[in-house]
Amino acid sequence: VPVMARDMSDKEILKMELEQLKKEVNTPRTPVSANCADTITFVEGMLPNDPLIKGVPDDKNPYKGDKGGCIIT
Asked: How far apart are CA 57 and CA 69, in angstroms?
């Protein structure tokens, strides 16, 4: 049964927070600028295949065709 923070004493909560911070201090960090550059490179590399940019051909679009539609009257 998980213990909820509301059921813990202040000392237990602080101990739990300290343990989490000890774990996080060893997490490798990278500068935001490097992450942004990597993200831009990834997005630009995926651009030719992005259906939101290029669109979906009618023959591959499951929502096109003579499947009926919805008419609001």
From this structure: 19
What length does the chain have? Answer: 73
Q: Shortest CA distance to 16 belongs to which of 28, 29, 3, 27?
A: 3
Over its length of 73 residues, how does the chain's per-residue pLDDT go in tens digits? 677 888 889 999 999 999 999 999 999 999 999 999 999 999 999 999 898 888 888 888 877 766 666 778 7
Q: What are the boundaries of each domain within the chain? A: 10-49
Q: At residue 15, what is the residue type? A: K
d(CA 13, CA 20): 11
Long-range contacts from 67-72, C-beta under 8 angstroms, 24+ separation: none
